[in-house]
Amino acid sequence: MTERRPIRKILVANRGEIAVRVLRTCREMGIPTVAVFSEADRGSLHVRLADEAVHIGPAPARDSYLVPERILEAAARTGADAIHPGYGFLSERADFNRACRQAGLTFIGPPPESQEAMGVKTSARRRMQAAGVPVVPGSEGPIADEAEAAAEAARIGFPVMLKAAAGGGGKGMKRCDRAADFAKLWQAAKRESASAFGDDRIYLEKFLDGPRHVEVQIFADEHGNVVHMGERECSVQRRHQKIVEESPSAVVDAAMRAAMGKVAVDAARAVAYVGAGTVELLVDSSRSFYFLEMNTRLQVEHPVTEMVTGIDLVRLQIEVARGGRVPSQQEIAPRGHAVEARIYAEDPARGFLPSPGKITYLRVPGGPGLRDDSGVYGGWVVPPYYDPMISKLAAWAPTREQAIDRLLRALADYHVHGIATNTHYLRAVVDHPAFRSGSYDTGFCTTFAKELVKPPDPALEPVALVAAAVAAHRRDHDRAEEFATRAHAPSTAWARLGRLRALRKVEP
Amino acid sequence: MTATTYVALLDGGKREETLQVERVEPGVYEVTLRGATHRVDAYHHDHGTISLLVDAESYSVQLDERGNGMRVHLRDSVFPLEILDERRARMRRAPGRLTADGLLALTSRLPGKVVGILRRPGEAVREGEGVLVVEAMGMENEIRSPKDGKVVEIAVGAGQSIEGGTVLGTVE
Q: Is A388 in contact with B63 (Cβ distance < 8 A)?
């Protein structure tokens, strides 16, 4: 490993599970760390796990985690020489990346130029077209005017997708089925995009029917090496948010994997990429694939790739940022199958309403082949300001079927009290015949919506009632008895002694 | 020892079940429900977890207590319910049920920001139709009308930040 640049202290410019994830690898590598936190996150797990922590502002992300100056000030104050941006927040902001460079800090990620080329989704599409990579039909660039956008949508043909030019992660993304809904969805997409990315530019894409969302993990170093690490199947999405991901994909065979890998590597080379990146592709029912976008950062679902390849992607990010090399393509040999489910603080029974609040009790599963990437702990109050994902639970096994069974078992052992979570919903997803068969597409959650949110099983209701009644009885009577025993114990003892003496007196 | 009677409220109070519970020895109860009596061996594990042997069937039950109510987790089912002793159940029945007559408030349980107002005062709404849009935790959620009627008041403006539980408007 050639190290051109030392990294002596890393500031993690993020919160929640991904901050915890990055801090864990830093700890393993013996690198001192700095956490940053908003007013709402003083008690957050990532603050506790870092060597130093700096308060960077009020609870709303736009006043704290999204303010580049606050992050740079925190780095200057603590003497950090590198920034790990995680995902979301500032991770794909080329201006922040450049500001880090100007401040003499190492940004653990690609160069700002690569982010600019891929960051604005519309210019990325043009570039990929030029490189001969097929793209989904859509508008040439972002559209400023609502009326013009509505006309463009009609030209492309409904349904269309409204997408944030600066976007990712489903934020600011809307599906529009008819002209009548366009105005409402256009406004909503602009607002969500502005609040999530500080950029409200929207472009349009044709909505492909029944596509699968498959993405390829790539890794590049500054010595010109680019490798791919296989694919992740991310078609199980709700409101454009991925909720279950797996690697490998059931639809991809060795020849297709090689073809996709080549496209992904070419895409990375086309923008002189360095570091970890993900090329997202849409796969249609005839298994043709189209470039969707490139995410120029670590992906939420990176653990499934780590589980099948055995590679710590965060460690490799840090090594590449120091000037190190990526392994050769031959050294990357995925093994077995991994499935991940995202655990959200939300209530499926109430329309998936976010459910922030205090976690009164938390017990997480263990056993072979499991990984829980959590950002919370029992007693923590999940704040209402950020993404409601609290953890990612992943299972590895030699075969897909065993990995699914393992994840099912583990989800049943995941207990969170005080707030609602989607663990039962995730079990219904993973156990659904369409998921088990491997033939599912991005319409999965909508198509099977009714089967996935199940009412409680009436056959179990008597047992639930018995449990509640017995607990109530124990609470009421045990406490009363305990109180009575304590309150009366001394007088009873004196009374017994008195009776004993009385008896002795009458004895001859 | 005599049996204690409990009333369980299900489906948000729309349904009731009555249970008699009698402790026969420490951790062992006789529970009568729907005319059948079961011998129940209840072992309390850590906070919130009970291992139940009902006759011979084994169940691991999670009790997630929320204020007066609780959510009982059992296998893939969650039963939100409230359990009351007889006296409290009687008191609860006395004042009569809430009805959807008159003014009802529109509230957001979550703090966030009002990003859209879909209905103006005086406009008619149907139950379940969106009246306002609130952004919380990065996602937009519609605040829906709890009944058929008309909007009486919208108490907030677009762009306004709100606390959880704020009254955003009223519907009659």
A: no
